[in-house]
Prior knowledge:
GO terms for molecular function: transmembrane transporter activity. This protein is an all-alpha fold and 448 residues long. It has 22 helices and no strands. It has a single domain, classed as Up-down Bundle (Growth Hormone, Chain: A), CATH 1.20.1250.
Amino acid sequence: MRTGDQVVQGLPWRWRAQGTIFVIGGLGFLFDAWDVTLNAFLIPLVGAEWGLSLGERGWVGTANLIGMAVGAFVWGSIADTIGRKKAFSLTILMFSVFTVAGAASPDFVTFCVFRFLAGVGLGGCIPVDYALVGEFTPAKVRGRVLAAMDAFWPLGATLCGLTAAYLADLGSWRLLMLTMVLPALLLFWIRRSVPESPMFLVAKGRTAEAKKVIDDLVSRTGAPREEWRLPEPQQVQRLSAKVMFAQLKDIWRYDPKRTAALWVLFLAVFLLYYGAVTWLPSILKAQGYGTYAAFMVTTLTVAVGIVSALISAWLVDVFGRKWVIAISAPLAAVALVMFAVQLDVGGAAKAWITAYGMLIQVTIPALYAFAPELYPTHLRASGFGWASTISRVGAGFVPVLFGALLWPLLGLAWTFAAIGALVVAAVVAMMVLAPETRMQPLAEAVPS
C-alpha cells in the first residue's frame, strides 16, 4: 500500500489543483525578482539624490541582498518547523511593510536598514515557495513545473524595468518602490487560501489535516481513489536558533558531497547574475547612455529570460538538470566577458548582453528545479534555503566590491572573466559530486 506522499507525487497534473498553487507561488517569485532588479535602478537615482560615491552606491544593493541571505536560511528553517503555509504568507507581509518604510527614509543609512529588513522578508520566498510547490507537484512533471516557475523571475524583472523606465523622467525612486507594495499585499491575502503541504503535515504528525488535504487533492485532480496509509510521523520541533543550526548540521550529514557542490554552484551562478544585472544601468550610463536608454537595455536583458525560462522548463526534463546547467552557465559567462570587451561597439555589446540574459535564465530555472530535489522532506526548504543564503551572502557583497574595487581596478572584462572561471569550477564540482534528479522520486532517506 502506498503512502500519502507517494499518492500526491503520482497524481495527474491539473491547473485547477496543483496549477493554482504553482501560480500563487510563482507570483511571490515575481516580487522577489522585482525587488532584486529594483536595486539596479535605485543605485543611480539614490546615488544622485544623496551624492554618493561608487562604493557607497553599492550598499543600495548589498543591504538588500544580505537581508535576502539572512531571510533565505531563517525562513527556510521556519518553513520546515511551523509549516510552508504560514511562512508562505508572512514573507510577503514583512517585505511589504519594510518596503513602505524604506520609501519614506529620510537619509541613506535609514534607507539601507529598511532595504535590509525588506530583503529578510522577501529572501524567504524562494526556498519556501519552491518547497511548497515541489511537494504538491507530481514527480513526472516536477522538473518542468519548478523550472517553469522561474519564468516569473524575468517577468517580475521586466515589470520592474518597464516601471523604472516609465518613471525615469520623474526621478522618483520613492514612487518606484511603492509601485509594487499594493500588488504584494494583495498576494498576501490570496496566499491565505493555499493549503498546507501534506508532506509537511505527515512529517509533523498532523495526520487528520494531512488526510483531508490529500483526499481533497485526489478529488480535484480526478484521480481514481485508492487505499493509502500515512507514514509514521516525526517528532515535532519547536522553532529556535538551535533547531536552525541543527538543520544545517543535518544537511551536511545527509550528503556532504551534494551539499558542497550545490553551495559552490549557487554562489558562482548568482555572482555571475547579480554582478552584471545590479550594475548594468550604471555601466551603460558611464558609456554615455541616458537614464531611459540605460533602463530599457537592462529591461531587455531580463525580459528575454521569459522565453529562456520556458525553454529551460522543457530542457531539464529532456536532458536532465545537470547538463542544462553545465552548458548554459559557462556560455553565459563567455557572453558577459564579450559584452565587456566590445562595450564600445554599441550593436555588438547589445547583442552579447542579450545573449547573456537568455543563457543565464536557462541556468537559473534548472538550478532551482535541481536544488529542492536533492533533499528529503524535513530538509527540503532549509536545504534550499541554506544554499540560497550562501549565494546571497556572496553575491550580496558584489555591489560594494564591484563599485569600490573590481570595476575601477580590474576593469569589466577581467572581473567577469574571474567570475566565469569560478562558474566553470562549480559546474565541474556539480558533475562529479551531485546526482542527476530527473524523473526521480523526492528523496526521503539517507542515500546509501
